[in-house]
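S.,

Sequence below, as promised.
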Amino acid sequence: MCIHCRYLVRSYLNAANIKSPRFENNLPGYDWGKLFLDRHLDLSQRLAENMKIARAKVSLEIITKFFQNLETTLKDVPPTNIINYDETAFVNDPGKEKVLVRREMKYPSLMRKHSKVGISVTMAGTTSGDMLSPYVVYKSECLWTTWILNSVHGSRFNRTKSGWFDEETFTDWFNKLLLPYLKKLDEKKVMIGDNLASHITFSITKKCEQNNIRFVLLPPNSTHLLQPLDVAVFHLLKEAWRYVLQEFRHENKKAQFKESFPTLLKDTLTSVGARCQANMIVGFKATGIYPYSLQSR
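The prediction came back faster than expected:
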């Protein structure tokens, strides 16, 4: 039985000033926990994902207020004109791999070149599943031509000292990839993303006003709940990425990561194919953004 439940029982007994003769220091044993689960078939044990405390503090009040404002913002906006953007990192680590070994071998391992170095990519998609070309940012002082060869059609590349998006790179993404796409759409447009200060600039705000674009910022620490890309797309891409990277490393043991990245990203997106678009639609629905549904949260 999970340790949290056992300690919850002890906490209850202590608070009620009850001394149970069955438990040592009021803490139930594992056998008691097993019998407890046998009696309550509506309960089951699941692996829980670790969540940062800041994320856990996102309250119902904050979410409700966000959706109330969102309902007003999305009024008279065609669903195809709602777009979500987000940034993620693709790391140079294919993860663990199954291997064949003798039964007596306790700790099998593989010798291969890898690291936790990641390359930042911003992606965007609409409620209809349309996906914009990726925007890649390397951690480097300069951008080499060999780092952009054989890339996804329409993608753009940049570099920063940190390897993450800053005001300059986000503005470039907005001007070169997002804005040209949104200008093709009639009526009001809405772009939904995180609340990083580097993403909010006067020039971007001005262009949003000029092109009938509404900028919606998600509440802090809520992307795991309200970011369609985070909810339904990135997990699919990361699974495909690990497989593509693993296969690539088998055949190209000496290849440089940054020089190989455009090809790897292209192969990853090709491998998921239409599933990426389908998951984008699912992400909007799961978050309650479209179709609009506060109850789904």
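The two ends are 29 Å apart (CA to CA).

Coffee later?
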